[in-house]
Design goal:
By secondary structure, the protein is of the alpha/beta class. Helix 2 runs parallel beside helix 5. The chain has eight helices and twelve strands. The protein is globular. Helix content is about 30%, strand content about 25%.
C-alpha cells in the first residue's frame, strides 16, 4: 500500500511540477503547493514513529552530541554552544551534551504544533521541545550571526526550497562557524517524489548537488562566495555529510 501511494502521489507531484512551474528555479510557488499537500503524509509517518519511539534513546538528556558535529569546532571551558536544529521533527536527534556539558539547543519544524499534540497524546516529554519555524524564514525568527552551529538531518530535502533554507542557515550562524547537513542520498528518487520528498541530495565528483525531476544545482558553486562547502559520503553511500563554513 505504501509503495502504491508513492507511485501515484509521485506521478501527481511530477505532473503538477511540469504543468504549473513556469520556471526552473527553486523559488517557484509550485514547490510550496506540493509541500502543503504532502505534509499530511509526513504527520502520519511521524505519528507512527512517535508511537514506537525509543524514549531512552531519543529523549535522553545525558546523550552526547554526535561526533560529526563535535569534530568541527572547539569551545573554551565554560562556554555553552548554541545550536539550531532545523526541521527537527517531533524530537531533535541531536545529543544534549557536549563533553558532558549541557548544550543550548533550539529545535524548529514547520509542523511542530502537530508533533507536540502527538507527543502529548502519547505522554512523551522531550528534553528539548520543538517549536514552529520554517527553514526558509529563519531570519524572521532569529538574529543573524547568532548560532555556533546550525544543523539539519534528513529535513531540507523535505522542504519546499532547500536553497533558500541553506541561505538562511548561513545568515543565522556565526562567521567561521558551520552549517551542518546530514541527509540520506537521493530521497526524491527513492520515494518517487511523493509526499514531501521533492529533492535529491547527492555528491558528484566531490561536490554537493541538489536536484529534482526538473533541475540540478551545484551547491558548492552557488555558495562559493559565502561559504567553504565540503561533502563526504557516509555509511557506504547511504548518507551525505555536508559542512558549510561561513566566510
Amino acid at each position: 500500500m505504501k509503495r502504491l501511494f508513492e507511485i501515484l502521489n509521485g506521478a501527481f507531484n511530477r505532473l503538477i511540477l511540469k504543468l504549473f512551474s513556469s520556471k526552473s528555479g527553486t523559488d517557484s510557488g509550485v514547490h510550496k503547493l506540493i509541500w502543503g499537500v504532502g505534509k499530511k503524509s509526513e504527520v502520519y509517518y511521524q505519528e507512527n514513529f512517535i508511537k514506537n519511539l525509543d524514549v531512552d534513546l531519543f529523549c535522553n538528556p545525558e546523550s552526547e552530541i554526535q561526533e560529526y558535529v563535535k569534530n568541527l569546532i572547539t569551545f573554551p571551558n565554560g562556554a555553552v554552544p548554541k545550536i539550531l536544529d532545523v526541521g527537527a521533527g517531533p524530537v531533535t536527534m541531536l545529543g544534549k551534551k557536549w563533553n558532558g556539558k549541557t548544550i543550548d539547543i533550539t529545535a524548529i519544524d514547520p509542523l511542530a504544533e502537530k508533533y507536540n499534540e502527538i507527543l502529548s497524546k502519547y505522554n512523551i516529554i522531550p528534553p528539548v521541545r520543538t517549536q514552529p519555524g520554517f527553514a526558509e524564514k529563519l531570519t524572521e525568527q532569529f538574529e543573524e550571526n547568532y548560532f555556533d552551529i546550525v544543523h539539519a538531518i534528513n529535513s531540507l530535502d523535505h522542504s519546499f526550497n532547500p536553497v533558500t533554507a541553506i541561505e538562511q542557515m548561513l545568515k543565522v550562524v556565526k562567521k567561521n562557524s558551520y552549517v551542518v547537513l546530514y541527509h540520506s542520498t537521493n530521497e526524491g528518487k527513492r520515494h518517487n517524489y511523493s509526499g514531501l520528498h521533492q529533492w535529491n541530495f547527492y555528491e558528484k565528483e566531490g561536490e554537493f548537488h541538489i536536484s529534482n525531476s526538473k533541475m540540478n544545482i551545484n551547491i558548492k558553486n552557488k555558495f562559493e562566495s559565502s561559504a567553504e562547502v565540503n561533502s563526504k559520503i557516509m555509511e557506504g553511500g547511504v548518507y551525505l555529510l555536508v559542512t558549510l563554513k561561513k566566510k
